[in-house]
Amino acid sequence: MPNYTFVVNGKTVTVDAPADLPMLWALRDKLKVRGPKYGCGINVCKACTSHLDGEAFNPCVTPVSECAGREVTTIEGLADGDELHPVQEAWLEQDVAQCGYCQPGQIMAAVALLKKTKNPTDADIDAIQNVCRCGTYFRIREAIKSAAARMA
To answer: What string of DSSP letters covers 48-116?
Structure first.
């Protein structure tokens, strides 16, 4: 099998994997990075949302070969040491999580949105389309708005 080298949460790593192995399995099974969750495997639920070169992507449908030489950031790499990202702080303040399964993907999608849209509307937030089976969408929206205000 070929080797693929890329950066995960600031650390250069190399994995031995088939070219078509979904990046999610390289992260979870080979690198033991457990933040991105498996939900559907077909880019619908977006529980695995992470960043590839600073843009939101879904590793469940992205082959590891497409990540070679690039930078992957998961929820584990979002905080700066012990200092949480403003979106993570807002999530806690708004008490967003219930079961918490989708939250890493929700947070990573929100961070990507706020990089592009400093003052998102409800429509901007709804366009994220990450699925939360607990239905905490109102609190998610409030947390994103709170984080946007904090980041302004």
So the answer is: T-EEETTEEE-TTSSBGGGGTTSEEE-GGGTSBTTB--HHHHHHHHTT--SS-TTHHHHHHHHHHHHHH
Q: Report yes or no: 104 and 75 within 8 Å, Cβ to Cβ.
A: yes
| pLDDT tens digits for range 72-96 | 999 999 999 999 999 999 999 999 9
CA distance 115 to 112: 5
Rounded to 5 degrees, what angle do the CA atoms 120, 117, 131 make? 60
pLDDT < 50 regions, the chain = none
**What pTM was computed for the model?**
0.96
Residue 20 CB neighbour total at 10 angstroms: 9
